[in-house]
């Protein structure tokens, strides 16, 4: 096979993977409201600032503010003036927000368990090894950054 066939086959399978519920659920944990809730859960602090959420999610402060506004309107987070610095706000979970995140995470875990069941131990280990290799590749990371700077990527 030539490089174009290999590339086209990889792209085709990645597009197909993108349609699986697992990927849609996983994507929630890296962007938007669920990602903000996940950051609140995983950062180890009971309270965080909106700017910390912005930085962690790699979104503008305006986008982070919109996410937080939506989460507040749904009752998943609350915000109050920081006792340490009255110029800043603290964001924290409500019980309703914790419950929602737990439900979403439990669903994701069950789905990944199915993924493991379908592929089996040796294939999961091989897939994990290959994904780690890709994620650790400085060449790919630099190329993705270059593509984004030249308009080839989406933010």
Describe, in short, the structure shown.
The chain is mainly alpha-helical and 155 residues long. The chain has helices spanning 3-18, 21-28, 32-42, 50-57, 61-73, 95-135, 138-149, and strands at 77-81, 89-93.
Continuous helix count:
7
The topology string of helices and strands comes to HHHHHEEHH
Q: Approximately how much beta-strand content do the residues carry?
A: 5-15%
Helix content: over 70%
- Tell me the number of strands: 2
Q: Can you list the strand order of the major beta sheet?
A: 1-2
- What is the C-alpha radius of gyration, as a whole number of Å? 19 Å
| SS content category | mainly alpha
List the helices and strands and how they pair.
Blueprint (H helix, E strand, L loop, with lengths): L2 H16 L2 H8 L3 H11 L7 H8 L3 H13 L3 E5 L7 E5 L1 H41 L2 H12 L6
Antiparallel strand pairs: 1-2
């Amino acid at each position: 096979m030539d490089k174009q066939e290999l590339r086209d086959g990889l792209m085709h399978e990645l597009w197909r993977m993108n349609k699986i519920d697992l990927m849609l659920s996983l994507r929630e944990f890296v962007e938007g409201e669920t990602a903000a809730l996940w950051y609140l859960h995983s950062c180890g602090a009971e309270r965080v600032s909106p700017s910390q959420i912005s930085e962690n999610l790699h979104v503008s402060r305006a986008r982070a503010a919109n996410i937080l506004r939506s989460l507040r309107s749904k009752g998943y987070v609350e915000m109050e003036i920081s006792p340490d610095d009255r110029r800043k706000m603290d964001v924290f979970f409500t019980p309703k927000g914790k419950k929602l995140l737990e439900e979403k995470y439990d669903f994701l875990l069950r789905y990944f368990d199915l993924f493991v069941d379908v592929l089996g131990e040796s294939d999961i280990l091989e897939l994990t090894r290959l994904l780690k290799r890709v994620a650790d590749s400085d060449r790919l990371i630099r190329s993705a950054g270059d593509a984004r700077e030249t308009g080839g990527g989406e933010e």
